[in-house]
Amino acid sequence: LIFFRLRGSTAEEPHILLECDSSVLDSIQKHLKLYKIRRKVTITPCPDLSLWAVIPGEQPGDASSLPKSADQALLLTPDPRAEVMGWRLIAKKGANLSEIIPGSQVGDVQDYHRHRYKQGIPEGVKDLPPGVALPLESNLAFMNGISFTKGCYIGQELTARTHHMGVIRKRLLPVRFPAPLPSPGIPEGAEILTESGKPAGKFRAGGGELGIALLRLAHVNEPLCINLGGDRVKLSATTPEWWPKAAVK
Prior knowledge:
Elements: E1 2-5, E2 16-19, H1 25-35, E3 49-54, E4 73-78, E5 87-92, H2 97-100, H3 109-119, H4 124-127, H5 156-165, E6 170-176, E7 191-194, E8 199-207, E9 210-216, E10 224-228, E11 231-237
Antiparallel strand pairs: 1-2, 3-5, 4-5, 6-9, 6-11, 7-8, 7-10, 8-9, 10-11
């Protein structure tokens, strides 16, 4: 989830907008309602809104170069995960994007996924399978997604202990294949091996020649492969440049 506090909200009656994977919208609503207890909280979907990613080319952008607000934009704010992801724009369906962001061009949704896979940014239940993905292995500490100062929450002890010990052996990393893969591509969860056949990690998801995988950091710089239908498909992994320098070990 990505949380946004809408403009005009007050401390007494905050209006929080949650961006989520649409495929699990129903289960997320049930989960939130389970924990609201008797509080006067209204939880409702917003089918009249559209979400856009505003990506200013290949280099990190400056938030000051975009208008702070626009009449047709409900929300226009830097993506809270990483500067390389640009901005998030939420507007009413049918809004004129060229008026909100002059000079912009509308790309395909696959352009967005290619960009985030290239940067190693996970998103949704394919990249972050519920009950399987761990916050630190998923790099959420790099993406404004973990608090080490707030009180208890589910999984807090394991997350805090791992963080303070400083030992994280596996991380989600961007991977690239030599060429676009034949249909239907790499199955989710496919095992990634080193050249000598040692387990190196698992493929999560991707598109074309780009993807994201959970890999053992000890094997990141080695030649990697996936056995697919009797064929050996090669791939390589990289460490994203936007990561904190102390994290690159």
